[in-house]
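Interim report, section 4.2 (structural modelling).
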Amino acid sequence: MAQPQMVPAAHDAALIAAWQAGDEQAAAELVGRHARPLARFLAGAGAPDADVDDLVQETFIRAFRGVDRFRGQCQFRTWLLTIGGNVLKDFGRRAARRKVMPLDDGVRDMTGDPHEHAEASEAEALLAAGLQQLPRLQREVFLLRAQQGLEYEEIAAALATTPGAARVHYHHAVRRLKEIVNP
Amino acid sequence: MNNERLESLAKRLGSDVAARLDVAATARKVVERLREQPVRRIAWVQQTWLRIAAALVIVLGGALVASRLTPGRRPGVSTHAAHLVADDLSDLSTDELRDVLAAFDELISSDSVAVPEGSTDLHELDAQQLRAVLRSLEG
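Predicted structure of the assembly:
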C-alpha cells in the first residue's frame, strides 16, 4: 500500500479559515489542490467521463457551503471525497429518473475519443465494471484505500464507522472484485 | 490477480479523466458559482424560520378556535349562550339578552363590538340596543 499523497492539513485548515473569512482565492486554491484526486475518485466510483467536471464543481460547491460542518475529524480531502460520493449518488438518482444512465447497471460512459477507450486495459475495464456491482460503502472504502491510499483510521473517521468495519468492507470488496476480474 | 495488482489497477482508475480536467477553469467556475449564489444558506435559514412560524400560527390559531367552539369550557358563560346558535334573537326577553351579554362581557372587550355611544352599562340598554350589540357579536 503506497503512502497517501496528502497535502499538509495545516495548509488546508488555513485556506478553509481564509475562505470562511471571505477570501475567494483561498477557495480557488483548495480546488486546485484537490480537484484531480476528487476527479479520479468520482471516475473510479462510476461517474461518466463527460460529467466528471460538473460533479467536481458540485462537490466543491457543497463542501464550501457546508464547511462549517467540517471539524477536522479527518483530512479535508477525505471529507471532500465523501461529499463527492453523495453528489455522485444524487446524480445517479437524477439519471435514473430521466432514464438516461443508471449508474448501478455497470454501464460506463463510452462517449469521447474511441482511441482513449481502446487504450484502457481489459483488466482496468473489468475492475471499473466490477466496482459498479459493489455496494456503495464497499466501493467507496475500496477506492479510498486502494486508489487514494488512505489508512483505515482516516477512512473510518470520514465514513463515521470504525477502522475494523472499514477493514472488513475493504476485504469484502477485494474478494468480490477478484471474483469479477478473475472469473 | 493478487492484491498488489488490484491496487495498482485501482490507482489508475480515472487517471485519464483527472489529467484532462482543467483545474484552473474548474476553480474559476466554482468561485463564480459561489459568488452568484452566496445567500442560499441564509435563504434556507429564513425558510426554516418561516416554516416554524407558520406551524406556530396554525397550532395557536387552531387551539384558539377550538377553545371558542368547545361549549361549557369557558367559566361564566351561561346556558343562554346556546340561544345564539339555536334561536333567533327576537325570541329572547330583555332579561335573557342581558344574561347572554353579561356572559360574553369578557369577550366583548374587543373593539370589534358595536356598543352604542354613551352606554357604560348593559342595564342602560333597551331590548333593541341589546339585540344590535348581539348581532354585532355574531359578525
